[in-house]
Amino acid sequence: MSRAAKPRPARGRRTFLAVAVLAGGALAGAGPASAEGATGPSAPPCSHSRLVANSAERVGADGVRIVVINEGPGPCVLEGHPTLALAGQGSPDRNRPLSVVRQGAARPVRLGVGGAAETRVSFTPVLGEAGGYCASGAEPFVAPSTVVGIAGGHLQLGPDDGGAFALCGTTVRATAFRAAS
Fold it and tell me: Which pLDDT score is estimated for 60?
């Protein structure tokens, strides 16, 4: 008794079908270059050289909102949390690296040219007036600017009100980057 051969799909047809499905999925996710907040495999990761930021916008007494903008030449994808340091009066020995507690899950944010993403940074503020003090007993630290680590590089920013950053301790909290609102 001989076995009847089972029909098998041709290998070439399976490969073509798989390639067609993958290509269709890649093209469907590409979207227009200005679709902020959407992810798409066609955009490369953002590099710091294409991102700009003007200042850190104060949000209450204990936080700042930092917005970065993609200057192009094309769309890119930004993902993750920033690193931060306070920059003291142009002197490296007065700089203070900060420990960042990450808030929220990092998700890819697709930035078209001109598209913006934001992170919110909060900290323990210095209390009182001029001399200021920390409720914890820590030494207050005041600096005119912050250095934001993003996409493999650094951006140095001052507060939008022209003041200085004043905080207690060396720990800040930062949200993951998301499409700017």
Answer: 87
Average pLDDT (65-88) is 94
Mean pLDDT of 44-69: 93
Write b or e for each residue in 75-88: b if 16 or more Cβ atoms lie within 10 A of its Cβ, otherwise e. bbbbbbbbebbbbb
**Separation of alpha carbons 147 and 88, rounded Å:** 10
Q: How is residue 113 annotated by DSSP?
A: T
What's the rounded Cα separation, in Å, for the pair 143 and 126?
12
Query: Which residues pair with residue 68 across a beta bridge?
Result: 117
Looking from the CA of 177 toward its CB, the CA atoms found within 13 Å total: 26
Q: Phi/psi at 102 (nearest 5 deg)?
A: -75, 130
CA distances from 145 to 58, 86, 96 (A): 13, 6, 11
Q: How many C-beta atoms surround the C-beta of residue 125 within 10 A?
A: 17
